Amino acid sequence: MAEINKYWIFAGEASGDIYGARLAEELRSLAAASGRQVEISGMGGPMMKQAGINILVDSSELGVVGLIEVLKHIFKFISIFFFLIKKAEAERPDAIILIDYPGFNLRFAAAMYRRKIPVIWYISPHVWTWGKKRIPKLARYCRKMLVIFPFEPEVYANTGLDTVFVGHPLVDIVALRHNQSIERDPDTVLLLPGSRGMEISRLLQPMLGTALLLSRKHPNLKFVISTPRKKILNHCKEILEKFAAAHAKEKLPEIQLVCGDTAYWQQRAGTGLAASGTVTVESAIAGLPLVVAYKLNFLTLLVAGILVRLYRGFFTMVNIIADKQIFEEYLQWKASPANLAAAVERILPGGERRQEVEEQMKDVVRMLSGGSEGACRKAALECFSFVMEENKRKLLEQGKQ
Predict the structure, then answer these.
(1) Residue 291 sits in the same domain as residue 228
(2) Are residues 280 and 290 in contact, defined by beta-carbon separation less than 8 angstroms?
(3) I need a surface site. Which of 210, 243, 366, 369 has the fewest CB within 10 A?
(4) What is the pLDDT of residues 137-181, one digit of tens each?
């Protein structure tokens, strides 16, 4: 009978759900090629479930940001946390792979360290931006760190933590779903206000104001708001209806609401305006020039100190990777319709920054590549090899007893 290895994969946000699904697929492929079987369970969303992972906790609505937002859900998080600890003690997986989501995952890593269950961290928390005190904890609790940005290994230098740059999984994912039949429409502007309710509440209104300003100068422009799921779509619809009512005397541009179709529109649209997050990297890989905006709860902003802790001077990941501004970015009060509209104009087809941004996005994709084997495969190989080595070590120890 083939040997069975147990992996747990934890993803707390929509992006991690995508990465966890791809990781599971590659782990199964590696196991089958070597005559082994795998059982994969975890915390995740629809993509991980679709990939055949046994979902212990559905994390679809756990992706909250900010101190106030987390406090509202604290008892839910505590209940999930202790449920998973009890489950891990009973099942003792060969490895637990934690994907980003540091507020929850770092505490869980500490609990697993005390119980001698090995942890692999896939996709480092942004400890270079804030939370540098977490670095020694990560080095202590984790057996391996798989990073997706080329500058990250230096962050963990001299910690003793086995850190490997595997490349960004989105490079593989975007390449797989690329459809050559889709042509860009230079007159379509894609609005990506986020995947969380609080992001939508803070960002969609200024984005709609931006669309209104742009349409006055460029009446040919059409706008598409892309959302990840129905709940967010409905939230956007409510805000759009209120905005339309408040501007009833003005001619609003064409604004289409879509759900679950962001990948298509990243190839179809000519230009974009997005919330800061993974979607900015995804858009760069897909070749969609963006302007980026973000707003935080004021108390969260004070606690985070984000204004004085910007890594390399930026908060947009594409700019951090390149160590220069590619996507213009606007934080808090600076994310006004006037500022955003002017920035979008500069990257519209024929705009003064358009060609420069298109070339620099290609440079970022090259920097994020995981090599010939691909980022997802490379990450799975690291996890698979780790478990194989651990099994050998345990057998040797048993033989000595």
Answers:
(1) yes
(2) yes
(3) 366
(4) 999 999 999 999 999 999 999 999 999 999 999 999 999 899 999
